[in-house]
Amino acid sequence: MRYTTVIFDLDGTLLNTLEDIRDSVNHILTKYGFEERSLEQIRRSVGNGSGVLLEKSLPQGRETPGFDGLLKEYVAWYEAHNAIKTAPYEGVTEMLRAVTASEHKVAVVSNKPDENARALVRRFFGAYVSVVIGERPGIARKPAPDTVRQAMRELQSFPFETVYVGDSEVDLKTARAAGIDCISVTWGFRSRELLEEAGAKTLITGPSELLRLV
């Protein structure tokens, strides 16, 4: 066995959350008179947490009057509407079942707000994931290595036996900063070309391919 521990990104890796994120962002934008964002605009804006997402979605970014209040309202709305269109990518549930059956330790590390991440993992993957860490006070979000290192501590795993699986350049930077290997997936929110430009060396095109690498 090459790895004992597999840490997954959530959005764009395990779950296709893009439409619910877009709809929640657009709920806030239209409520306060701003122009809606397209699915592709949202796709390019996700990956660095809710604050960056909303910053990129508002014409004035963080200079928008009342930005902190808008962000709080977005997070609350999305938490209540985060599983309307969201679903696992095809083959992901079966892959997680196989990974856990082979006695790997499994975690999810996300830049989603912590409770949002935990709720979605409980709903879709509760039988397979033992540790979930989202964005929370007191710990730097990805691409800082802090959340991945926290997951390794909770799983009692070392960097040499751990691999991070994600769909974005943020995930590549995170794995690099944490001193662990990274497997990039091509079915998520970023293109293969972008991932390769960001330095991806190991890429997979379907969840079942992960099994031969871990």
The number of domains is: 2
Distance between the termini: 7 Å
Q: Name the average pLDDT.
A: 96
Q: What proportion of the residues is helical, as a percent range?
A: 40-55%
Considering the chains and any ligands shown, give keywords for the structure.
alpha/beta, two-stranded antiparallel sheet, six-stranded parallel β-sheet, 9 helices, globular, 214 residues, Rossmann fold
Describe the structure.
The protein has 214 residues and is α/β, with parallel strands linked by helices. It folds into two domains: 5-16 and 86-212, Rossmann fold; 18-80. Helices cover 43% and strands 16% of the residues. The chain has nine helices and eight strands. It is globular, with a radius of gyration of 17 Å.
Write a compact overview of the structure shown:
With 214 residues, the protein is of the alpha/beta class. The protein has nine helices and eight strands. Helix 1 (18-31) crosses helix 4 (67-80) and helix 3 (50-57) packs across helix 4 (67-80).
Which helices and strands occur, and which strands form pairs?
Layout (H helix, E strand, L loop, with lengths): L4 E4 L6 E2 L1 H14 L7 H7 L4 H8 L9 H14 L6 E2 L3 H10 L3 E9 H12 L5 E5 L10 H10 L6 E5 L2 H10 L2 E5 L6 H6 L5 E2 L10
Parallel strand pairs: 1-4, 1-6, 4-5, 6-7, 7-8
Antiparallel strand pairs: 2-3
Helix pairs in contact: 1-4, 3-4
